[in-house]
Amino acid sequence: MEQVAMELISKSGEARSLAFQALQEAKAGRTDEAALLMKESLICSKQAHKAQSKLLFSESEGNKTEITVLLIHAQDHLMNSLLAQELIKEIIELHESKADKSN
Prior knowledge:
Layout: H1 2-27, H2 31-60, H3 69-102
Helix pairs in contact: 1-2, 1-3, 2-3
GO molecular function: metal ion binding; transferase activity
Cofactor: Mg(2+)
Keywords: Magnesium, Metal-binding, Phosphotransferase system, Sugar transport, Transferase, Transport
């Protein structure tokens, strides 16, 4: 369980970092780079979801998962990275719209 939790933390953290890097690229007007970074971010999120699914499937098979601070922390990382991605996607679209209007 600890290994799965660490995978969740790692992949979620990477997804969040990539999304914020994408935002910086979009702010600088580099929309192609921003799009690539967001794609990478989504790939990391999918990997984090895979780790989470391992826990869910295990529990659905009757294997109770002990709730630990590490597991709660891992879930928190996942939810924060997903929220960051959603908000950053919207902010990037605003930057692109602003750039289109000024051209």
